[in-house]
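Researcher: Here's the sequence for the chain we discussed earlier.
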Amino acid sequence: MTGPVYGHEPVGPLDHDLTRQHKGEPLGERIIVHGRVLDGRPVRNSLVEIWQANAAGRYIHQGDRHPAPLDPNFSGAGRCLTDDEGRYRFVTVKPGAYYPVAPDFGPLGLDHLLEPYPYFQRRMYEGVEDEGV
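Model: Thanks. This is the structure I predict for it:
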């Protein structure tokens, strides 16, 4: 299964802020996911894309049969370009635990379903800060 397809559109001004892409406020605790892209040196202008579940653990995808509700104010998809130091930053919500319904649903986006906890929560939180919202 694949994540969202962005096409060839330029990165938009709110693409990095998954909490401001809709009219209303998404549900869930706000977090900041940040890091650096390095290849011995900072990699600037590198496209970083994320796809994640909402605060209830649900993806916007036709193949997601998780019984959790969708959030109409959260798409779960974002992207940004790294700066001159290779840094990237996303404002998002803490994703809920994701439990696949079908055994072949497999890894999705940032999730790598190790145990019942998403990869995003286990690995990416090494670079997460509380936004204080």
